[in-house]
Design a protein that fits this description.
two-stranded antiparallel sheet; about 550 residues; mainly alpha
Length: about 550
């Protein structure tokens, strides 16, 4: 149970209070580290330390599964703790420095040598640093993300803060490639990014991320005081997955859709393969040819622009279509663009294989990425109300933990399987840079056949995953009519119990917060919850009727 603290009117900038901005910037700070590691860590280990790409992929998969276990341990510690400084803020302070230090250490080039002992030491080091980094990332991500429930005193402000945080998160994930380019120019890199450039970039982004997290701790405020609560167990989550079909659908959309984000983990490798001869940079006054990881900012830049458009329009589109239709439409669109682009690249003339063609393909696919981070949050919030409506029990902690676990499992599969597949087609960064020279030499290693296989991994797999996750959504039952009915009946129940929950829903942030986007009008012939209750119709029967009826407003 939470208690509302006395609040004074706060100044706003672009609709957000200072506290809401601090939350968004804190989340942005963490994602500097996440973007750098997810995009460049495998390339650094492969190119600079000489580790095998497939072995790196396996280590990353193991490290991410360890972080999932750490997610539960740290989540339970946070739930059971009772600090005077707040529920989340103390953990933000405790986690900020480990994440910054381990992000920097992840890009330190240690000369292990080619001996057997050196090789063993290299893989032990990579395993240790990846596990420690993933655990530190989890330790930082949980309290910073959890601050969303405390940054505002009404659901509308909470949604606005989440929207801005999602926008800044997307920007921060794309920043490492730009920083590496700028630092590389200052350092004077030759063929590809040097170990010094990697280290300097890691230090800069770690310091920036640390600054934003500390700013959030020292200047941010928790708008509510929260007492310690009991944690959750794996067993509770699996029981919830088994009995709650709607949250199971959210889980499956993450797992089946793992490949939607495969491009982030393969940005560097994809650049080396698709732009194998490099780019002459003399058109911007740099008399050099850039290769591979120097150009990683190029691949994906157009999809970032188009996905940002849908990120900003998510609330408007969702209000018009509803979560179910929006998810399905976005997935089907993404699959169509992915399939057409794959066929054009593989079967078309050479003009359809150029960097310019790739940027066009990515621009159109980018529109399908925008809903990925937004819709599961809104759906999970609705499912919390839906389960309370049908069962009388409210288990938001367990259901949001399932969503978090689903997201981490999806990311683990995305990064590790993507690297495994790229390694399986014969690509290795150290071999690529050893082959640098004339275009014919590079083309002898990175053949058209390798490019076609890499294009299937990089562009067709995301489309297939979008299709698979969309098919699951056909079984999702919480439409606009159901949401209106269940919220009205829940309000009646809470009023009958003294109005306690009704009063807190808009105050403590426990309400779904999605209602801002779903104020749709329904036909006059619908059965209202008041009439239903007077006629003895229960929640189960209302749910069956409303979910079988044609969707209204979606």
């Amino acid at each position: 149970m939470t208690n509302l603290m006395e609040q004074k009117p706060q100044k706003r900038f672009i609709g957000l209070t200072g506290n809401m901005w601090l939350y968004a910037l804190g989340l942005m700070g963490i994602n500097f580290a996440i973007g750098l590691v997810n995009s460049f860590q495998a390339e650094f280990f492969n190119k600079i330390l000489g580790a095998n790409l497939i072995a790196i992929a396996i280590i990353i998969l193991v490290a991410k599964f360890v972080s999932i276990i750490a997610d539960f341990v740290i989540g339970n510690l946070i739930d059971r703790a009772n600090f005077k400084a707040g529920k989340m803020r103390p953990w933000i302070l405790m986690s900020a420095f480990p994440l910054a230090v381990l992000t920097t250490l992840s890009f330190v080039a240690i000369p292990f040598g080619d001996s057997t002992g050196g090789t063993v030491g290299k893989y032990v080091y990579i395993t240790l640093i990846m596990i420690l980094w993933n655990v530190s990332m989890t330790m930082a991500d949980i309290p910073v993300s959890g601050m969303l429930s405390f940054v505002a005193n009404n659901s509308n402000d909470t949604n606005n803060a989440a929207g801005m945080a999602n926008t800044l998160r997307s920007i921060s994930l794309a920043c490492p490639g730009v920083f590496i380019m700028i630092v590389g120019l200052m350092v004077g890199d030759g063929d590809g990014v040097s170990k010094l450039t990697y280290l300097i970039t890691a230090i800069i982004l770690s310091v920036l991320g640390l600054a934003f997290q500390l700013w959030m701790y020292f200047k941010g405020k928790e708008q509510y005081k929260s007492t310690a609560s009991s944690g959750m167990s794996f067993k509770e989550m699996f029981v919830e997955l088994k009995s709650n079909k709607m949250i199971l659908i959210v889980f499956l959309t993450y797992i089946l859709g793992f490949g939607r984000n495969i491009g982030m983990g393969l940005a560097v490798q994809a650049t080396c393969i698709f732009v194998r001869e490099g780019i002459d940079m003399s058109f911007i006054g740099i008399n050099e040819i850039w290769y591979g990881d120097q150009l990683s900012f190029v691949i994906g830049i157009t999809s970032a622009i188009s996905s940002m458009v849908t990120i900003l329009l998510n609330p408007v589109i969702n209000k018009k279509l509803g979560e179910k239709k929006y998810f399905i439409v976005a997935g089907m669109y993404g699959f169509g663009v992915s399939l057409i682009s794959f066929l054009m690249y593989v079967l078309g003339p050479w003009q359809l294989r150029t960097l310019w063609a790739i940027l066009v393909y990515q621009f159109f696919l980018g529109f399908a990425y925008g809903p990925n981070g937004y819709l599961p949050m809104v759906m999970t919030a609705d499912i919390v109300d839906y389960q309370e409506w049908k069962t009388g029990k409210r288990t938001e902690g367990t259901q949001f933990a399932i969503m978090s676990m689903s997201n981490k499992l999806s990311n683990a599969l995305s990064v590790s399987l993507g690297l495994l597949l790229i390694g399986a087609i014969g690509y290795s960064s150290d071999t690529y840079f050893e082959t640098l020279g004339t275009g014919s030499q590079i083309a002898g290693y990175v053949t058209n056949g390798m490019q076609n296989k890499a294009w299937a991994i990089y562009f067709l797999v995301p489309g297939l995953c979008m299709l698979a996750s969309s098919l699951v959504m056909f079984f999702y039952k919480i439409d606009a009519k159901t949401k209106k009915l269940m919220r009205e009946e829940l309000a009646l129940r809470r009023a009958a119990q003294g109005g306690e929950t009704s009063e807190s829903s808009d105050g403590d942030g426990s309400d779904s917060g999605a209602e801002v986007f779903e104020e749709t009008s329904l036909g006059s012939e619908e059965l209202s919850p008041v009439d239903a209750l007077s006629r003895g119709v229960g929640a189960e029967e209302i749910a069956d009727e409303s979910t079988d009826a044609p969707e209204s407003g979606e």
